[in-house]
User: Fold these one by one.
Assistant:
Number 1:
Amino acid sequence: MSRLKQALESGRFVVTGEIGPPKGVGLDKCLHDAEKLRNHVTAINVTDLQSAVLRIGSLAVSTRLIERGLEPVYQLTCRDRNRLALQSDLLSAWALGIENVLCLTGDHPILGDHTEAKPVYDLDSVQLLKAAGTLNQGHDMAGHELESAPSFFLGAVVTPAAEPPEPQVIKMKKKIEAGARFFQTQAIYEPEKFELFMNQVQEFRVPVIAGIVLLKSASMAKLMNANVAGINVPESIIKEMEETVKEDRKKKAVEITARIIRQVKPFCQGVHIMPLGWDELVPEVISEAELG
């Protein structure tokens, strides 16, 4: 059974991490970054052409993690594949030992580095969850019986800071009905707003893992505010980063991340730390946040 599933079902507060596959075939750095998370996280997300930028596939990297005894959360987006390819990749993932799947719609190609690429979007994230759930039940989307069935632990994404929050609550309910058994959130920097959102969805009784991106600079925070829907880094945090000299930015990133984790911990079942290349800081964050 998935270690992530076991941890969440046992009620243990979990920590997950994330790595981004490289733009090329060399996996040494990517796998080295993953090794830094060993013994500190329950599972490691592997992004699927994040921001619609061409990279090696999440299926390949997830498989290499399994070979090393690390547990992946295989991210799968609807942007680039029709329902045949999505179902085939899911069956391939199970055959390769992957149990955790995070189902995403995916950023539009116009936002990436191949702006001329044609998006597919045969399914959206809710429909992908239904498709994966149907495979778990031993049938494909067309109703044909499988010779053998997987048993994926299915996850989805929610954006607690979205305004207004009601559409996110409605979408979350649809994703649960479609088969989502855990949620990871868009990056959170406003614990008070997160608490209000969690109060709205507590009746769903599905584990929520709060996401947070390590801030590298004030300009990064401003860029996310301007370009990433559902993220709002407060001016107070931006000011903290602006007043931090370059040599102390990593220390400040750990301090801010740990502080937010401590504030959101009472309202969620785990945290998802997205280090964006600062993987070596994750153990410090966990220690300062008093998670282990």
Number 2:
Amino acid sequence: MDECQRCGACCASFRVSFYWAEAWSRGLPDLMVEKVNPQMACMAGTNHTDPRCLALHGAIGDEVRCVVYGMRPEPCREVRAGDDKCRDARLRHGLAPIPALSE
């Protein structure tokens, strides 16, 4: 199991905002998307003080999965294990940083 499948901290740390049409083009179910403004949407559950994406199932730091992984929007695809966003999210949830993976 890779580190991301144990972690999930990024899915419960940030608002995942994207242009509204990306949800439609990727086939995201309406239940998984919230309107931010006329141009922008976000993953449901991430536009809160204590964000947690509705698509994240499982326990952070133990075992998680994204139920819309293949349809996830670009901001989700941009986070890489060990990058700055990963490090910040892991620290927010009391998890030790992991080394950045080279591509």
Number 3:
Amino acid sequence: MSKPTAATVHTELIRHETECAERWKTNFKHLEKMDTDISFIKRWMLAGLFTISMTLLSFVLSTI
């Protein structure tokens, strides 16, 4: 195995940076989708909490 030259190291580094840039682009797309999904789940949970709270409040008020 020969010692790498500056030119081969530079070429490998450029290739590596290109691959990493593509991976990060894909990663950010997935993170944005996860943020959207988490926001959707949060809204549903808050709506469910509101529904449960109103149901319990109606039970309490109806027994008075």
Number 4:
Amino acid sequence: MELPEKKTARLSDVARLSQVSSGLVSRIINNDPKLKIRDETRRRVHEAIEMLNYAPDASARALRNSRSGLLGFVLHHVNDPVYEDMVVAAQSAATTYGYSLILVDALGLEERREVFRQLVHGRRVDGLLVQSGFGQNRFDVNEFARVLPSVVFNSGPSAHVRTVRLDDIRAARMATEHLIDQGHTAIGFVAGVGSTSERRYEGYVEAMKRAGLGPLPQVLGGWGSDESHSAVREYYSHGGNATGLIAVTSTVALGVHSGILSSGLSIPGDVSLVGVHDTQVAKHLNPTLTTVSLPMAKLGTAAVSILIEQIESVGIGEYVITDPEPQIIVRNSTSPPARHN
């Protein structure tokens, strides 16, 4: 079969290449829930879309459906490297569904209510992905859901909106178990504020109790590296004796890492450190950072897919990503303790 001439691909080109009707291609692209076809046919259509580099006409689609063709992605700390894989995957998924994704800074949205009103009540976007789990938002996520199809991620279950999150409890449990297996008994948890940190602390507590160890009070470091650096320095200056620390995220772990070293302690000789989330920075620290890797890309893809479902038919319910499981990535920041408590 010959490919059409090199030009902007049309729906009919995809149909011709995959040997199906244009109507069927359209239903596949729009994820028609009532469509029942063979997997081989669906695969053939997607291969034709990729081969032709076909992109649905967003403007035409918007006119047909009275939609903007845009999805909003409301993030805290939009530049945090933790989110890189998630954002890239979400953008790719949105494109697959014929949408464009725009990033919105949560703090700016909270502080500028007129932007909030324009975005939500002005129907500038067809749906919203809203990040929760980081302290108390000054806006009510339920207000989003009342006006626009919305999905909240990093949140616990809600009676009013669809939610999707990672297996935070398991991730923190794995991080703690790694230090326990290394022989540590005095293990601390450097926390943020909000439900995400609470779930991870819960995983830490579970692992400690299973091992017959007493959990230590949280070291409250916030979500930034500067805050966690200061918190860890203060902890050790006031007699803290943890030989192992779990950082609630790898960004927090950066501050913990420097805080330990600036306290005159060594890693991992005096203190072993594990961060939740794996980023490029982790393997460039000295010593390199042991982490628990979470499926951030799948979180981004799943959040967009669920949001598309919400646009078509609003519902509620929680989705927890348990496959793939979190994975411990052992580097040089952990070892058996030099001294025992």
